[in-house]
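User: Structure please.
Assistant: Input sequence and predicted structure:
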Amino acid sequence: MLPSYAIIASAQSKAQRSTFFSSSAHQITMILITGASGFIGRHVVQALMAEGLPCRVYLPPWRQRRLPWDTNHPNAPAIVTGTILNEETLFQATSGVHTIIHLENALWWGRLRDLERIEVAGTRQLLTAARSARVGRIVYLSQLGASPSSAYALHRIKGQAEEIVRGSGLAYTILRPGIVYGLNDAFISHIAMMFSINPFLFAMPGEGEVVLHPLYIDDLVRAILISLESLDVVDRTIEFGGMETISLFDLLQTIMRVTNMPRLILPVPPYLLRIITRLYNLLLPRTLMTPQWLDILATNRTAKLSNTYDYFGFQPRRLEDTLLTYLPRQRHFLNLLRYTFRRRPRGI
């Protein structure tokens, strides 16, 4: 079955992408993807396979048991095994590479120690190996609101990683998307799972006035592919999101409407939800709401609405249109059980 980005693309946009990559494919000798088995990474790998672009993935051993792409496909990526802190295997992975798409992160599951080791120390080690291997460029996926001086751990650590990328001496593109969503994502799908727990109430952080800028996964993948060859995004930090911005309260209402799970929304002070989240983290292997989840909801996270078109030349899809393609068909309570009691991701 074709990935969703291939299904939704128009014939004209396919032809444009094919011409674009065929005219410059000789410039790309090899693309390395870190974090390739994650939500975003697996979509990027499948997109590169569909375009016939040579790619290599860097994965720790425990993530290679069930790879989310067809390993027998003629364009399947080569696999290098190692962790993001292993100097020897990092140099092996980066040798002969022209561009790195750095997606390895602990965004949704990691504790503070995981974030610091994977996002900061891991990025530093990767760039050290990349300089030794004479890699040409890195595309780094950050987060709207990233800043080394942020009061929130997620955005502070993402900002520190950005500074490491900028000071690496490599050509770079730093992408700061809004909340990325799609089938089996860790935000909107988690909200739907939380609706399935309680048929009456949903505990909303704060008053729901925080404004978000969701971006559909296929639109992010398309932007990443275009950024591989666009000179306009080299040595730039680009903030972008979907077709519209939306408050948290309106987002909850939209998800309830799409899933047909109406709930009474109960505003809860964010500090109280942080305490509850810490307790759940002690009791369960995984929790739907994490400290990073609450960091994202702490303040407005938006970009200029026209940025996706200005930088990448296409209009992203509307939120509700994309939710309708997959969210109503999911068995949210079963997904909740599978997620909550699955083994916790392993830190490096």
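The radius of gyration is 20 Å.
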